[in-house]
Amino acid sequence: MSGKDTVEVAAATPEQPQPFAELGLTGDEYEKIRQLLGRRPTAAELALYSVMWSEHCSYKSSKVHLRRLAPSERQSGALLAGIGANAGVVDIGQGYAVTFKIESHNHPSFVEPHQGAATGVGGIVRDILAMGARPVAVMDALRFGPAAAHDTARVLPGVVSGISFYGNCLGLPNIGGELAFDPVYAGNPLVNALCVGVMRHDDLKSAVATGPGNKVVLFGSRTGPDGVGGASVLASATFGGEGEGKAAKRPSVQVGDPFMEKLLVECCLELYAAGIIEGIQDLGAAGIACATTELSAGGSGGMHVTLDDVPLRDHTLGPAEILMSESQERMMAVVAPGNVAAFHEVCAKWDVEATVIGEVTGDGTLTMTWRGGTVVSIPPRTAADGPVYDRPLARPADLDALRAAGPDGFDRPRDGVALHATLLALLGSADLADKSWVTAQYDHYVRGNTVLAMPEDGGLLRIDEHSHLGIALATDGNGRYCRLDPYQGTQLALSEAYRNVAMTGARPIAVTNCLNFGSPEDPEVMWQLAEAVRGLADGCQTLGIPVTGGNVSLYNQTGTTAIHPTPVIGVLGVHDDVRNRVPSGFTREGAQIVLLGITNEDFGGSAWAHVAHAHLGGHPPTPDLAAEQRLAALIAEAAASGLLASAHDLSEGGLAVALAESCLQGKRGCTVTLQGDPFTTLFSESPARAIVSVVPGREAEFKARSAENEVPAAAIGTTGGLNLAIAPLFAIPLAELRTVWERPLPALFG
């Protein structure tokens, strides 16, 4: 029907029923569209609005809260492009700019794990490319149901293979991320992909269509049926055009081709260098509909597109399907008429198909024709801006009881035997076990600029081989903390990512985020989202760093049961000289081990409560952002001065797990003596803490630097030997530790 449903037909048939509800629009939204257009929408227009007004594209339920994240002047000193752009861009010095962003591909990755995850990587890479940068690395933050669950065995290997396939084929190093398991993610895994790119300041590009008469060029892969209905129910015969009955069933998960994406990357970079692009937009969710709408709305407000000229893989597609297709590896450019020939020449060099499908107009209308009829005629901002909802908020009814039921009543290990067993239980849990089964499938060192990668606290890349300037990145999130207190839990995720970047010796300067929550129609979920955004805004204001952009992923739930609120925070840092990077493993024999920060009794939402007692309750640790700043400043100074042999943050599992990881990663034991209650000292998860090993002979200097930065520092032991020894309580041979740590994931996934 959509091919015959022109604007003229729509105006003449106002009472014709339309499947707005099946496409995810409410009755009020449908009526609003009719009011905006002064008639009922055509089938193609209805499809366009349905996806542009979806949560995924419009942020209609979260926009009212996301406004809190707008950076202050104090936070904006290094910001070149921020919220609203395809990705945030920051100045890192020496004329370089870095763009980075994290996005979700949760639902497609559950339906078809390999392609869902692969195209998630492809999509975020194109976001970075659309800013004018060369993509240089990726990361991923992954969460699944119970590690031993049957469906996890289906989903996790497919997700990992999709990420590794796409990233490795593109030649992008995967430098870090997360892997966690919890029953709340069964049936709704979280697959959050991050990409970072590098450019010179002058290379920055914008998603705008300006200059009436400029040509609109679609280039990359041909448009097919894959991904139609990815954001709403478009996979129906109603939108099959002439193909009704022939192609009624369309795949809702996109199919990726990383080799085409690699060609597209190099093609775009050459086009940028030639200076022949006026505006650029990647095609992701909602495909051509989204790209044309956003380019038009961001520019002079007018565009004419001839859908007959769109290169198709499937000629049964009608206008709505052409618009909504989420076929991968496509970009859209605005090109001056005099540069079109040069544009085609570059594309031909890279074997990238390019077709002029329209031109910029000055009439403020997005017009699309198909087979001689006008099937879209709308003011583009009405679709691009979308509705704004201030949905009801309600503090979860069970929250007070959950917080009151803390882990204080559980038996705690007191003697050496019990403490030894507790550490092994934590190290052998899926959350804290070695992640090499996953990370070994990724190429960490392709391109030759990776300085640190998993399992280090943060990934570190060299940007300039002469000045040794570098960038560090880390992602972190903790759904258990956020379930107990989304405000503090989000600040704890921010704190940990900030701290992990600092552990490499870098200075944290900017933030991206992926906010994973349940249904916005649930007031309790909306309260959690509002509190998380408030926590992130207040935390970044205190730290003095901007949120540059990100993603909101809603409706993450199974039936009526939502996931834990899971904001994943990515932090970017600048490393002045990557030759002074600091690894997390104990690398020097006989180095003094220093515990930095203050340890309190912090066990609410802890790994110990989760692993030993399958318990969630109490209060999470209280963030101390000022202490995080002091700790980060100390590590940066000490790294630059060559004082540190290693640095590792304390987070899940506390000091005990951090010591074990440093021993295993450095292949060197340690002997430590504790002060105070051994259980609290070993397993508390108080924030703003780290362990460092000091270069022998530099202990006094480091002690003085710690005092100058007002960071509590306690010498607790030395590196060396073949055991992790907590004197006089227990000693565990590294060989035993390694067996326990490395065994879980291979045993589960092969």
List the helices and strands and how they pair.
Elements: H1 7-12, H2 27-37, H3 43-52, H4 55-58, H5 63-66, E1 79-81, E2 88-93, E3 96-104, H6 106-111, H7 113-129, E4 134-144, H8 150-170, E5 174-181, E6 190-200, E7 215-220, H9 258-274, E8 279-282, H10 287-298, E9 302-306, H11 319-324, E10 330-335, H12 340-349, E11 354-361, E12 366-370, E13 373-378, H13 380-385, H14 399-404, H15 416-427, H16 436-439, E14 450-452, E15 459-462, E16 470-476, H17 479-484, H18 486-503, E17 507-516, H19 523-543, E18 547-553, E19 557-558, E20 561-562, E21 566-575, E22 592-596, H20 607-613, H21 625-640, E23 644-649, H22 654-666, E24 670-673, H23 678-683, E25 690-694, H24 699-708, E26 713-719, E27 723-727, E28 730-733, H25 734-742, H26 744-749
Parallel strand pairs: 4-5, 9-12, 17-18, 24-27
Antiparallel strand pairs: 1-2, 2-3, 3-6, 4-6, 7-10, 7-11, 8-10, 9-11, 12-13, 14-15, 15-16, 16-21, 17-21, 19-20, 22-25, 22-26, 23-25, 24-26, 27-28
Helix pairs in contact: 7-8, 8-9, 9-12, 18-19, 18-21
